[in-house]
Amino acid sequence: MESRVLKPILAVYVVAFLLFLYGPFFVLTILSFQQGPDGGPQFPITEWSLYWYKQIFGLTPPSRIAPLPVGEALIRSLVLAFMTMVTSTVLGVMSAQAFRRKFTGSSVVFYLIVLGMMVPGVLTGLGTSLLANNVLGIERHWYTTAFATHVAYTYPFAFLVMLAILNRFDGSVEEASWSLGVTPWTTFRKVTFPLIFPGVLSAMLFAFTLSLDEFPRSLFAAGGSGDQTLPLAIYGTFAVEIHPNIFAFGVLTTLFSFALLSVYGILMGLSVRRARKLAMQEDIA
Amino acid sequence: MTDATVARKRRLGPTWLILPGIVWMALFMIVPIAMIVYVSFWTQTTFNISPTPTLASWKQFFASDTYIGALWTTIRIWLIVLAATFAIGYPTALFVGLFVKSKTLSTVLLVICVIPFWTSFLIRVLAWRPMLGKEGVINIILLKLNVISHPIEVLLFTELSVIIGMTQIYCVFMVGPIAFMLGRIDRNIIEAARDLGAGFGRIFWKIIFPLSLPGVVVGAIFVSVMVLGEFATSGALSGRKVNLLGNIIVTQVGSLKWAMASVSGVILTVVMGMVIAAFLRIVDLKQEL
After folding, report:
1. What ranges do the domains of chain B cover?
2. How far apart are CA A266 and CA A274, in angstroms?
3. Which of A205, A285, B156, B222 could in theory staple to B173 by disulfide, Cβ–Cβ 3.0 to 4.6 A?
4. Fold classified for A71-242
5. B288 falls in which pLDDT band (50, 70, 90)?
6. Backbone angles phi, psi at B50, to 5 degrees
7. What CA–CA distance (Å, rounded) separates B91 from B77?
8. How many Å apart are CA A23 and CA B36, to the nearest integer?
9. What is the structure's pLDDT at A285?
């Protein structure tokens, strides 16, 4: 049978595919341990060292290579990602909640929201900066215009995640709560929200990571140099000569992402375990 | 409490729940895109821009080799990257979605494909420089293997490097949807075809490929939208030699030529709209999902 021949061939192909996917990052990681400050961003490694990692944290004596201007940009990016996360998750939960019953124009609204994840950042970024700069005459900042475009991008993701969760949600527990005279808001807080919490966590994770790495929207909508977010600061180093410090920084941000993912995993595990415990208590009762 | 008050209470007005979202998207997506169309007809002078309507920027766009060239480069690179992501991604999706029997293993493989996305986008782009350069890894390996005697110089800062970079960054968006559709194929259909004596080629073209087509279309839409809106990869890996419409927009905004940036933006929007409409012609997604 062909599949007996085809399967091993495809398996080898997939390994090659993964090499293609991971190759650049492996190389980048190796080169981040290049000797400094004279070692260049290429092979051979003249001497293994942690110089470029130390440089990022300002632990090396000043040299001709300026340290990456990432300190304040990192804080701005984290605050922006946090603001975006909270806003788009709240909007996402509200909209998905509204979509649990049919309303007139719901399919138009659905496409309006989902369009936000499809429209390229160049366009929303350009449009928002035109609006702020040429029509309203207001200054662009990372916490105003850039924030608005970030939410318009991440909110659709939060919305879709919550929609998927609420589609599988059993409404009878809410009805039980309402018929006992509990107000809708308390029902939402005490019954609905704990049940959809895993979805809320996923929506938050999506919004935070997408905003943290968002580049084109910030480029147009974030204004001047006092407004640089992390991706903008990294982009700024592209124009001039690159050094292994940017590679070391790439490794560190990836590790940070993994830490974030682990926190998400732990929270998710805890909430699943709690739900199981509650279900077991009910069974016993 | 009567049933009517319960019903009224639990409704909590879908209108009020959905309104903030609609307002946000209207203000920060629809109005900005409308602004691009509007400003593309404004009058641009060297230092200023005024809302007097004119077609000057549009005429300038279509009269200039640079801008028309950027439009064609965008379309060419989009088509090449789309074909490359499909060609490279489909066999992977075939293995993950169809050939791997265990659900766990196929999930693990998909997760492995997604992990690189945890590195910042710009760093992933930049990582291609030490791979492709004259003293880069690919040249070092090929020289060591005696495949070549001189380093290949066309690998970096050319259109080729942009294509390689974009293919690597975007091919996962092709793999995911296709693998998903392949995973949903009823294995009994394939077994039945095999029992009736069909070879793998026939089974593939008559059953597997048509059933995976919705996944291909979704993947193609993802890749198209992202590649057409690109400017960072082309900027970083071509040494500013490859200019896409996105690069034109960035440069024009940088020199405060808002009207010209808007014209490029409108053209990009139109191209994107046509591409998506064409893909949705192939497969009616609403029916498939």
Report:
1. 65-288
2. 12
3. B222
4. MetI-like fold (1.10.3720)
5. low
6. -130, 150
7. 22
8. 39
9. 60
Across the interface, whether the CB atoms of A254 and B118 are under 8 A apart is answered: yes
Which segments in chain A show pLDDT lower than 70? 1-3, 283-285
Confidence of residue B117 (pLDDT cuts 50, 70, 90): confident
Give CA–CA dist B244/B75, Å, rounded: 9
Neighbours of B216 (CB within 10 A): 21
Residue-wise pLDDT for A82-100, tens only, equals 999 999 999 999 999 998 8
The answer to whether the CB atoms of A23 and B137 lie below 8 A apart is: yes
Considering the entire predicted model, what is its pTM? 0.88
Is A253 an interface residue toward B (CB < 8 Å)?
Answer: yes
For an interface test with A, which of B8, B17, B28 has the most A Cβ atoms less than 10 Å from its Cβ?
B28
Q: Domain B65-288 has what CATH class? A: mainly alpha
Rounded Cα distance between B275 and B289, Å, is 21
Q: B239: Cβ–Cβ under 8 A, 6 or more apart, which residues?
A: B156, B157
Print burial letters for A21-52: b (CB count within 10 Å at least 16), e (below 16): bbbbbebbbebbbbebbebbbbbeeeeeeebb
In chain A, CATH 1.10.3720.10 sits at 71-242
What per-residue confidence (pLDDT) applies to A3?
67
